[in-house]
Design brief:
Structural class: alpha/beta
Order of helices and strands: HHHEEHEHEHEEEHEEEEHEHEEEH
Oligomer: single chain
Number of strands: 15
Helix content: 25-40%
Distance between the termini: 56 Å
Radius of gyration: 31 Å
CATH architecture of the largest domain: 3-Layer(aba) Sandwich
CATH class of the largest domain: Alpha Beta
Strand content: 15-25%
Number of domains: 3
Shape: rod-shaped
CATH topology of the largest domain: D-Maltodextrin-Binding Protein, domain 2
Length: about 300
């Protein structure tokens, strides 16, 4: 059964004044500390006592003391109020300078390509920021996952996100090992893939990704088949280098093995292009300094 709940807007009203008087044991000195008039302090204390239903101070012409109720309230409210002030200062600190825990959701293939070259320099430049990288190829909800930002291929980023470009656009290439291509021949047309072992990617939504190619001004999607299905590009790339079959991956992921002669690209003339890699976040309002520092550092490392 749903319960009625009312937010008490006056829950903390007068507490700071009470603590100042309790600390000073003097209304006039407490007023000076708070920068208000003694009458304002007296009124705030009377309002608090009325709300509590108990006198908190014993007042004489020469001194101010705590009642039993006042002492109990001081024992509980004092530490709690200090924690509340400290919490506010901590939140303000995060909002005003680069500090705190920065959590990023990143595909595994992106870590060596984009993040590894700059992680050390970022940590040295911002030692008060704790950088946490969650490497996973699953699409996660940043808010429910507790992430400050994510990094993904542009076509997979929701339109309501703020996206920051990290790389230019690049093609998806079909690659195979020299040994595989020598044994089976290189496909010259998309239709030839029906006769090849094609290593496929299963997306985080459970669907197997088709292979995409350009066809004039449009695109075509080829449903291929083969002996291996993986959930990330590095696994597909490793299998292709072992000669198991052909794989379609982003060109930057395959760049190193291609340059080293471990892989060769085929069907380059019909390779589809992706918008590139982007960092994305929901911060339509002011970006926290820790994330701004990371974005600026990424851009300076390009």
């Amino acid at each position: 059964m749903k319960q009625n709940y009312t937010v008490r807007h006056d829950a903390l009203e007068g507490v700071e004044v009470f603590l100042a008087v309790a600390r000073r044991r003097n209304f006039r000195r407490a007023a000076a500390d708070l920068g208000v008039t003694p009458s304002a302090v007296s009124q705030a204390v009377r309002t608090l006592e009325a709300r509590m239903g108990a006198a908190l101070f014993v007042r004489t012409t020469r001194s101010v003391g705590l009642t039993e109720a006042g002492q109990r309230f001081l024992d509980r409210a004092g530490p709690a109020f200090e924690e509340l002030v400290a919490a506010g200062e901590a939140a303000r600190d995060v909002g005003q300078r680069p500090t705190g825990l920065l959590r990023l959701s990143v595909p595994r293939a992106v870590v060596p390509l984009i993040l590894e070259p700059m992680i050390a320099s970022f940590c040295r430049t911002y030692p008060v920021i704790e950088l946490e990288i969650a490497a996973s190829d699953e699409m996660v909800d940043l808010a429910t996952g507790g992430f400050d930002a994510g990094i993904r291929l542009g076509q997979f980023i929701a339109p309501d996100m703020v996206a920051v470009r990290l790389t230019p656009s690049f093609p998806f290439v079909v690659v195979g090992s020299p040994d595989y291509l020598e044994r089976h021949g290189a496909p010259e047309h998309v239709e030839d893939l029906r006769h090849h072992a094609c290593l496929r990617l299963r997306r985080s939504n459970g669907a197997i990704a088709p292979w995409s190619f350009v066809d004039g001004n449009g695109t075509i999607e080829a449903m291929v088949s083969g002996p291996l299905i993986a959930h990330d590009y590095p696994t597909l790339l490793g299998a292709a280098m072992q000669g198991i079959g052909l794989a379609q991956t982003p060109r930057p992921v395959a760049e190193g093995p291609i340059e080293q002669g471990k892989l060769r690209s085929v069907l380059d003339g019909v390779a589809a292009t992706t918008p590139g890699v982007f960092l994305y976040h929901p911060g339509k309002r002011q970006i926290l300094p820790k994330l701004r520092a990371f974005i600026d550092h990424l851009k300076s490392a390009e």
